[in-house]
Amino acid sequence: MFSLFKKDPTKKLREQYNAKLERAMQAQRNGDISSYSFIHAEAEDLWREIERIESSAK
């Protein structure tokens, strides 16, 4: 019953992840592949953190 009021611990990380993917896509479209690679790697790190949090919550 009280789980209804719990905040999602990964919500902020997911927003950051989506923003990083958006920035990476824009860099790729502009032809800046090195920036794309760097930003995409940061996004992958965020995704691993999200998965770690979700697996420990179960």
Your description of this structure?
The chain is mostly helical. Helix 1 (11-29) packs antiparallel against helix 2. The chain has helices spanning 11-29, 33-57. It is elongated and about 45 Å long. The mean pLDDT is 91. It contains two helices and no strands.
Structure in a nutshell:
This protein has helices at 11-29, 33-57.
List descriptors.
mainly alpha, 76% helix, elongated, 2 helices
Let me know the largest β-sheet: none
Tally of separate helices: 2
Backbone structural class: mainly alpha
Please state the overall shape, judged from the principal axes of the Cα atoms: elongated
Mean of all residue-level pLDDT scores: 91
- Spans of 5+ residues with little confidence (pLDDT < 50)? none
